[in-house]
Amino acid sequence: MVAKVTRSRPALIVLAVIGLASAGTAAWLTLSPPQQRNTVPNSAEVAQQQETQLFWVKNEGDRLVLVPSTVRLNAPAARPELFIQSRLERLLAGPANRDVTTGIPDNTRVNRVEVKADGIHIDLSPEFTKGGGSASMQARLGQILYTATASDPNAPVWISVGGEPLRVLGGEGLEVTQPMTRQDFQTAFALRTQ
Q1: d(C-alpha 94, C-alpha 56), whole Å
Q2: Per-residue pLDDT tens for 64-103?
Q3: 105 CB-near residues (< 8 Å, 6+ apart)
Q4: pTM over 0.90, yes/no
């Protein structure tokens, strides 16, 4: 005698549903495979090595001068504000060459850089305004201005500290015009470039 295997109707329904679901999933994956995410960045996001200038301070006899130094930095092709910020951050890290120095106080940070129709807007941390005499104040202002405008020497620069426009720098009251260009700086201060 042969044993007869009987399956209950609910079990058959469950097996049929599982089979149909599997077949449906296989058909869907075959007809519409998963989309591959484009992992290649567009040309505007690709960082490229570019030469640029940072400006340091050097004592020449009885006066200070701004000294350009050429460096290579990664620069996003279509994001000038990121390139300016990279230059400024490299400047704030201090000089590698012992023949030059900086007038910018330690721990100064770049909070934000924006390039707008009216010029380059830079927001620095409050440490930027601490310590030093008028020569030091002129030096740090010149270093920020000239380094920020390395790619566009005629660009006007707006400087703020902690979100507030910089009008007077230091205890001796070095007046800062806004915006300031390299030409404005040369007219207002005795500090020159080498």
Answers
A1: 9
A2: 899 999 998 887 767 889 999 999 999 999 998 889 999 9
A3: 127, 128, 130, 131, 132, 140
A4: no
